[in-house]
């Protein structure tokens, strides 16, 4: 019996992506300098409004009588429940909190197509209620299963067939990735890059851009949204690396050891059983004002599948910092990665950046509980910053959630002794790990997207 065999790897893809990354000023659609104005024009073309409302004004949402869980009457979308976490001994290793449970797997997909021999990516001007500026550059498709199966009885999700119907194109990347482990319980999205040769109908809210153009736009604050960044992090670009401080097998062994050494116990509890939090008509929050609040909003969005709705959201109480510290070994850049435990992860840990925190929650420099390397990152001289931007977190569930994103190369190299849970890996090794589900967390993928698109000035 004869069967058709396929090459195990597309050896030409890395070169095609490199050509796309080299085109940074213009492409088949807009010039890079025109994208911000195009987004402003799309913002003006539709009515967008987000209003804070009390829980009593939520339509279709209610607190369950016995558990207090905040849920939708359809039983779909998501619920706000409670989580009891134990990750170690002592009070720092135990806590309770509200958390979002959204078991369905969504699709984050970017459609690719070649124009004049250069790969372009179809990006969307999409409104999300949590974005500080509402409209940002998003993937071609950004939809939960409830959205693209039209539970909301709204319009169809445009271009979704390219990602849900087999055979519509060549898959360049396809991986299940986690979302924010501190706010979501076991949430995964399917991150996809699909190339098509078909004619793609034009739409005024979509634009074709090269990989390099998107890399340039990642330097702007709050322009490329989180869902686009996580897909771009999965792009199978090639990095010019032949060696590393740890071999790939040594790195995998370190990561497996980190997953094995942590004993964690995550237990779902009723929202009305969560201790250390209080509820009033407008919010669920901690009395000390730390971490985040659960709030509600009313939304009007003329360009969305449904024109208006209400929903709960999580709103952090301060701006986050996510940063990789860089150090060169024999001239090759390495990133200081942290194996992080977060309450919502499917497994015990995922690889995160060197620093991932909200500094306002740790107010005393050098104080107890201050995250390692935070002060080093915050005090870095401008000339030692290889990449910097403020990016919004996921705007569909989180309100005004922003992170100051940095890649920093300190003037003085770090010593050989690292705190437990930290290790050096190369950008190429991080990118390779991101092609596996639940290895690299969403904050590290934001910074990785700046590397896969060429935005980091090595």
TrEMBL record:
Residues 33-234, 251-450 form the dTDP-4-dehydro-6-deoxy-alpha-D-glucopyranose 2,3-dehydratase domain. InterPro entries: EvaA-like, EvaA-like_sf. Its EC number is 4.2.1.159. Pfam families: Hexose_dehydrat. Keywords: Lyase. GO terms for molecular function: lyase activity. It is an enzyme of class 4 (lyase). This is dTDP-4-dehydro-6-deoxy-alpha-D-glucopyranose 2,3-dehydratase. It comes from Actinacidiphila cocklensis.
């Amino acid at each position: 019996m004869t069967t058709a065999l396929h090459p195990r790897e597309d050896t030409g893809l890395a070169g095609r992506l490199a050509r796309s990354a080299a085109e940074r000023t213009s492409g088949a659609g807009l010039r890079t300098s025109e994208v911000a104005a195009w987004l402003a024009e799309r913002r003006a073309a539709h009515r967008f409004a987000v209003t804070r409302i009390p829980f009593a004004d939520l339509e279709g949402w209610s607190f369950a009588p016995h558990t207090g869980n905040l849920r939708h009457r359809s039983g779909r979308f998501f619920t706000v429940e409670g989580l009891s976490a134990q990750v170690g001994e002592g009070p720092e290793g135990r806590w309770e909190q509200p958390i979002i449970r959204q078991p369905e797997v969504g699709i984050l997909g970017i459609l690719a197509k070649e124009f004049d021999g250069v790969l372009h990516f179809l990006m969307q001007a999409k409104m999300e209620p949590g974005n500080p500026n509402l409209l940002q550059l998003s993937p071609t498709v950004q939809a939960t299963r409830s959205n693209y199966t039209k539970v909301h009885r709204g319009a169809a999700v445009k271009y979704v067939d390219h990602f849900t119907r087999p055979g519509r194109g060549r898959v360049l990347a396809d991986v299940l990735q986690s979302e924010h482990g501190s706010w979501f319980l076991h949430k995964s999205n399917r991150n996809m890059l699909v190339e098509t040769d078909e004619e793609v109908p034009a739409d005024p809210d979509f634009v074709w851009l090269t990989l390099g153009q998107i890399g340039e736009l990642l330097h702007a604050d709050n322009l490329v949204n989180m869902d686009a960044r996580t897909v771009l992090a999965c792009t199978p670009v090639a990095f010019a690396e032949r060696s590393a401080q740890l071999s790939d097998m040594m790195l995998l062994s370190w990561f497996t050891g980190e997953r094995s050494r942590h004993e964690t116990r995550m237990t779902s509890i009723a929202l009305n059983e969560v201790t250390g939090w209080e509820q009033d008509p407008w919010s669920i929050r901690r009395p000390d004002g730390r971490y985040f609040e659960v709030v509600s909003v009313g939304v009007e969005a003329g360009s969305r599948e449904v024109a208006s709705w209400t929903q709960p959201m999580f709103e952090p109480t301060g701006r986050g910092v996510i940063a990789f510290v860089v150090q060169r070994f024999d001239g090759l850049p390495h990133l200081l990665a942290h194996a992080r435990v977060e309450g919502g992860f499917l497994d015990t840990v995922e690889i995160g950046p060197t620093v991932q925190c909200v500094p306002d929650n740790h107010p005393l420099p050098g104080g107890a509980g201050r995250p390692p390397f935070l002060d080093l990152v915050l005090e870095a001289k401008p000339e030692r910053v290889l990449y910097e931007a403020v990016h919004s977190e996921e705007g569909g569930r989180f309100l005004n959630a922003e992170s100051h994103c940095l890649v920093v190369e300190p003037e003085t190299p770090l010593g050989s002794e690292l705190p437990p849970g930290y290790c050096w890996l190369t950008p190429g090794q991080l990118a390779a790990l991101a092609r596996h589900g639940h290895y690299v967390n969403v904050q590290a993928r934001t910074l990785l997207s700046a590397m896969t698109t060429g935005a980091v000035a090595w």
